[in-house]
Write a structure and sequence with these properties.
Blueprint: H1 6-16, H2 23-34, H3 36-39, H4 44-51, H5 55-64, H6 70-82, H7 88-99, H8 105-124, H9 128-140, E1 144-147, H10 151-163, E2 170-173, H11 180-183, E3 192-196, H12 203-214, E4 218-223, E5 236-239, H13 252-268, H14 272-286
Parallel strand pairs: 1-2, 1-3, 3-4, 4-5
InterPro entries: Homeodomain-like_sf (IPR009057), HTH_RpiR (IPR000281), RpiR-like (IPR047640), RpiR-like_SIS (IPR035472), SIS_dom (IPR001347), SIS_dom_sf (IPR046348), WH-like_DNA-bd_sf (IPR036388)
Domain SIS: 134-279
Domain HTH rpiR-type: 8-84
Length: 295
């Protein structure tokens, strides 16, 4: 059940096995076929009541079509919710169901809900035209510096690693043993710096962005507020939602934004980027970096 349309596969199986089901199981199956979104967010008792059958009817129906029980049957529908292929109200009901499931259920629901909400709020506030302009600036630049410290150092390095499979002169800064300002010493208006910091804003990132502006380097700021010192005055600024019920800041929307920005860079780039990516991965196969699949 690893297909992205796992819930659809279950629905097809129900239709295919319809004639083999008992009349009561058919009532349960009909409800599932007509209301598939209810499956992932309802307990067996709730869905049985809605279908006007006994709870064990759903259990027997699930077993008749090849599942161990209702929980096993329901899992593909819950997975569809996790992947965001159903509407937000259904996800909200799913989170409420999790919150009521046990001692750590509320924590799990809070974390998942926060991650989903952060991504939705982030992309709801982004203009794809602005993303395209930033992507074109990156592709047209001589060098790109991706600046992040703390947790955002890992985010900057991950973005740089992915970009480097098809593009040259991407640099994650600060480099080991250096400072971000020093790493920008020879950069100028031909270059771009992508700077990342959220509240409380890291001094070294803010100072490096100020240096970049003085040198004429184009700045793409990623932060959690339009009032952030690295957003104000930047040629391209993107605000990410970073709320979390825990003590550490959330990087979910920052990572999603960076991945989207990179996809835009690839989209606006010349066809040679495809050749570079193919060459990069072909080289990895030749060097034995990838585990080859058995024939």
């Amino acid at each position: 059940m690893n297909d992205t349309n796992v819930s659809n596969i279950v629905l097809e199986r129900l239709s295919r096995e319809w004639e083999a089901l008992t009349p009561e199981a058919q009532k349960a199956a009909r409800y599932v076929l007509e209301n598939p979104r209810d499956v992932g967010v309802s307990s067996v008792r709730e869905i049985a009541e809605a279908a006007k059958v006994k709870p064990n009817t759903f259990v027997r129906m699930a077993r008749q079509v090849g599942f161990e029980g209702y929980d096993d049957f329901r899992e593909p529908f819950r997975e569809a919710i996790r992947r965001g292929t159903v509407s937000f109200p259904d996800r909200a009901r799913w989170l409420q169901d999790i919150a009521a499931s046990g001692a750590l259920g509320q924590l799990f629901a809070d974390q998942v809900g926060s991650a989903i909400r952060n991504i939705e709020e982030t992309f709801a506030g982004i203009d794809e035209a602005a993303m395209e302009v930033a992507a074109k600036a990156i592709w047209a630049s001589r060098k790109v510096f991706v600046l992040g410290v703390g947790v955002n150092n890992s985010n900057a390095r991950n973005f740089t690693y992915l970009a480097s499979t098809g593009m040259r002169d991407f640099n994650a800064i600060p480099k080991p043993g250096s400072t971000a300002a020093d790493d920008l010493a020879w950069a100028d208006e031909r270059d771009v710096v992508i700077a990342i910091t959220c509240h409380p804003y890291r001094t070294e990132v803010v100072e490096a962005v100020n240096v970049a502006r003085e040198q004429g380097i184009k700045v793409i700021g990623i932060s959690d507020s339009p009032a952030s010192p690295i957003i104000r005055g930047s040629e391209h600024g993107f605000v990410v939602a970073a709320d979390t019920p825990q003590f550490f800041p959330s990087s979910v929307s920052t990572i999603a934004l960076l991945e989207t920005l990179l996809s835009f860079v690839i989209a606006v780039a010349s066809p040679k980027i495809v050749e570079r990516v193919e060459k990069f991965h072909k080289r990895r196969h030749q060097l034995g970096i990838y585990q080859e699949e058995p024939e």
